[in-house]
Amino acid sequence: MSIIVQKYGGSSLADTEKIMRVANRIVSTKKEGNQVVAIVSAMGKTTDNLIKLAKEINENPSKREMDQLLATGEQISMSLLAMAIDNLGEKALSLSGPQAGIKTDSTHSKAMITEIVSDRLLDELKNDNIIIVAGFQGVTENHDIATLGRGGSDTSAVSIAAALNADLCEIFTDVDGVYACDPRIVPNIKKLSAVSYDEMLELANLGAKVLHSRSVEVGKSHNVTIHVRSSFNHNIGTVVKKEVSSMEHNGVITGIAHDFNIAKVVVFGVPDKPGVAARIFKELALANIGIQMIVQSAQTENQNDIAFTCSLDDAREAKAILEKISNDVGARDVVITENLAKVSIVGAGMMTHSNIASRMFGTLGKAGINIDMISTSEITISVIVNSDQCEKAVRELAEEFDLID
Amino acid sequence: MSIIVQKYGGSSLADTEKIMRVANRIVSTKKEGNQVVAIVSAMGKTTDNLIKLAKEINENPSKREMDQLLATGEQISMSLLAMAIDNLGEKALSLSGPQAGIKTDSTHSKAMITEIVSDRLLDELKNDNIIIVAGFQGVTENHDIATLGRGGSDTSAVSIAAALNADLCEIFTDVDGVYACDPRIVPNIKKLSAVSYDEMLELANLGAKVLHSRSVEVGKSHNVTIHVRSSFNHNIGTVVKKEVSSMEHNGVITGIAHDFNIAKVVVFGVPDKPGVAARIFKELALANIGIQMIVQSAQTENQNDIAFTCSLDDAREAKAILEKISNDVGARDVVITENLAKVSIVGAGMMTHSNIASRMFGTLGKAGINIDMISTSEITISVIVNSDQCEKAVRELAEEFDLID
């Protein structure tokens, strides 16, 4: 008998009718001869509503208390789903994160799973139960509830699949799978039938929002096959796994990601001497500001400009920090540029094809799109462009790399 | 430093504004130099709304899953209240029933508290925290959540007060305390300044709804002083304790309870032979039907009628059970009478005054109120009357026994 782990997001569980539809799907999976563990998010807007209530009371509530509060959202949907399955005549049992043995560190609001003690999960499967587990939550050593942050329920699902050595982890969402780029930009873009962990990680990190990168990392390190598919139909979605055969590949380039949540910060006129760049990036790291690309260019013989990108949310804080130390490091000015976008092409095939970069830059040049910054890794090339040229860039690249159906 | 346990009901926590008012009250208690543990119910209509959701999905949901679901109501109010206190500059920490060490048996939906493991409560008090505990819930040996049933949060509060050896347990509610009878019937009825555990138990069992009898039982067995008072003002309410001095007493009769949730079941023409009554009440007990008064009267030389009262909700089931066995026991007919009410006078002073019963029956007789059944205990006398005469009976008795201000 196979163990199948399924994850259903909040939009798939938005009301009681949708919960009953999900229950039917789970029961079918069970009746096909599988043991099923389903991980659920909170119903529809529940989490938003709880956050709103909290903010009415305290504009800056403690993260521990927010976790105690938000965990109820998943607890509500898990018990309702168990009742719906019971109503269909199958045995079902809901377990909160703590009850399911999901142990976390104590970083409230973005905790990491440290261990899954799977005894109870295995016992209840043995008792022929369908198990419904509250996603997004676990329990600290101190018996406090901790939530896992963005994409937390995906991470719960893949981690439980790993702990149970499940045959498959199905992530049900409101789209049909992972597309080679955002289908809102290129409506007839190809859906990926399969993608490797590494490619999915790059796509997720670079802005594709279907699957959170943390869940892909867990999948990669425990070799969990992940199937991303729609909860609203029975179409085959996208399988994320270790190796993707050339048969399954679209071509050299797997996908194109884009991200508007990006800003460029330039520190002008930094003296060209050792330790200056280190000082700058140490201060930013201390403030937990994530740096993406870095470009240093010589302005005069003994002065450099240092440019880097970070998320839009962090840009103002970065500027403030750098202005505070600009006397120390001898910088002349700090300037933020917003209205930018990052466009990235991703593909494992890049490693064996040397002309990809030139094809990318050539395509963008021919379309009159100016490239502000460039960075590359083994399987990605990213460029920064003006935000109003982002969609055009994605479209041109999709055509160039044959990603349109 | 005194430990004060406070309990706030759902109507005191119905919206964020009311939660902030409760937070202020808790902080004042703390600032007066006390350690405070507050037990909370779910906000306003939360529990009703959760039940409605569940019923949409499954008309007869499992009790375990209902407990998993309903427990979220108290978890929401506990974390919001902790945030509100934090906003006032005091340290606060919310604990669910399981986190607070409230252990129960596994009778889902009406579990009994078996033990309170108070280590964490004591630790957090030592850390100068105000602790907010989710009422109405605990955890079974199997790590499942179990709710305590009606009046559960009161029971949580008094049990925690007992476990912490608290100096006082304040039950905040939407009325000013315990009145000698329902103030909706006699508006100028006396409020009781003090009442003994035994009297309060009788009043609670007989229909006074301010405090649930289970919480009074826990208070009695651990000698916890309980102060029932309003969360909407600072008036002194009613103190429930072991012994009430004559100074504190209203008179011989402490209060009058009434209860419309009552039905009479009469089994006609039962043969007058041993074992028949035993058989009848054994069958009813097996179905968990609580029997209140029993009257057996000889109809003919070798036939009896057996009449008893039970709650309205149970009457039809009782009739069905008795009809099923009526051939076995040789009964002629089973008849339910609804539209009844029970009116009871309660007072420890009754033990030393012999004319109370005759004063009661005389008063009712003079008012033209017919008495259907009578039962007495050490400190109560109860009569069954027609429901449309109930309020008149309460008014006449309140006057006779000098319970009007």
From TrEMBL, chains A, B:
Keywords: Amino-acid biosynthesis, ATP-binding, Diaminopimelate biosynthesis, Kinase, Lysine biosynthesis, Nucleotide-binding, Repeat, Transferase
Reactions that this protein is recorded to catalyse: L-aspartate + ATP = 4-phospho-L-aspartate + ADP
Domain of life: Bacteria
Residues annotated to bind ATP: K7, Y8, G9, G10, T173, D174, Y179, R184, K209, V210
SUPFAM superfamilies: ACT-like, Carbamate kinase-like
Pathway(s) the chain acts in: Amino-acid biosynthesis; L-threonine biosynthesis; L-threonine from L-aspartate: step 1/5; Amino-acid biosynthesis; L-lysine biosynthesis via DAP pathway; (S)-tetrahydrodipicolinate from L-aspartate: step 1/4; Amino-acid biosynthesis; L-methionine biosynthesis via de novo pathway; L-homoserine from L-aspartate: step 1/3
Membrane spanning stretches: none
InterPro entries, sorted: AceGlu_kinase-like_sf, ACT-like_dom_sf, ACT_Aspartokinase, ACT_dom, AKii-LysC-BS, Asp/Glu/Uridylate_kinase, Asp_kin_monofn, Asp_kinase
Originating organism: Peptostreptococcus porci
NCBIfam families on file: asp_kin_monofn, asp_kinases, PRK06635.1-2, PRK06635.1-4
One Pfam assignment: ACT
Domain ACT: 265-339, 345-405
GO molecular function: aspartate kinase activity; ATP binding
Record-stated family: Belongs to the aspartokinase family.
Descriptive protein name: Aspartokinase
Class of this enzyme: transferase
Function: Catalyzes the phosphorylation of the beta-carboxyl group of aspartic acid with ATP to yield 4-phospho-L-aspartate, which is involved in the branched biosynthetic pathway leading to the biosynthesis of amino acids threonine, isoleucine and methionine.
Gene3D superfamilies (UniProt xref): Acetylglutamate kinase-like, VC0802-like
Tagged with keyword Metal-binding: no
